[in-house]
Amino acid sequence: MRAAVILLHATQENYLRQLLLLKFHNAPASFFDGVKLLEDKEKFMLVELARHRGTTVDAVLADSLAAHLERTTFNNVGDLKNTIALLSVDPKSLRADWKTLGEMMDRRHAIVHRGDMTKASGRGKHFADSISPYSVGIWIEAFTALVAELNAKL
Length: 154
Fold this sequence. Notes:
By secondary structure, this protein is mainly α.
């Protein structure tokens, strides 16, 4: 079940990254705020830009954005809503189950960063918190509903 939660979150992140990559062609310049050129520098000299000679500006933007997104994570509902807003969709217009999506992201964080260790201690307590297939199913349904609604709006 833990692996399913991690894979669900990875699927969510990959889905958002792909949407952002598709969106960049029609995006305003502000869409690239915080995205560094391929060399990963705040400022660069023309010699560094010359390495991309023969490459279109769109290709450099796409490659730079892809590199940036590979290092980008979406760890909470705020990150999710901010990303959706970048796609020109008002998160408030969605019927997404933000609470359930947040629970999934929190649980994934606990699994990956704390080994899902239980906070409870004492006799009869296990090392890790239990996780039910039912909970994972609810999280999958919430994500699937978000994807369907976003796809319909894009």
